[in-house]
Design brief:
mainly alpha
């Protein structure tokens, strides 16, 4: 993965948490910088993982550790998805 150095403006109180970090913490911080773009559908989980140089499954697991679900659907939306799936399967038989 190619990297670049960038300057970020942040509250002074954050400096101690951002400057002293392990590889895992750095990976998590980079993943969190990308999450808003996943949430607003600018990029996919797969693209974010590609940018970070990790597999999609690892990225999903990282977000899960923070309580961010991969699938964020209501019960009603899940029911609709299952009905649509059943309809597609029925048409292919």
């Amino acid at each position: 993965m190619e990297t670049a150095t960038m300057q970020l403006n942040m509250p002074v109180g954050m400096r101690q948490f951002v400057s002293q970090r392990s590889k895992e913490t750095t990976a998590m911080q980079n993943a969190m910088l990308l999450y808003p773009f996943i949430a607003d559908y600018t990029i996919s989980y797969g693209r974010a993982a590609e940018i970070l140089g990790i597999c999609k499954e690892r990225l999903i697991a990282m977000y899960a550790k923070l309580g961010i679900p991969y699938i964020n659907l209501s019960d009603e939306e899940i029911e609709d998805e299952l009905k649509m799936y059943d309809n597609v399967i029925a048409k292919t038989k």
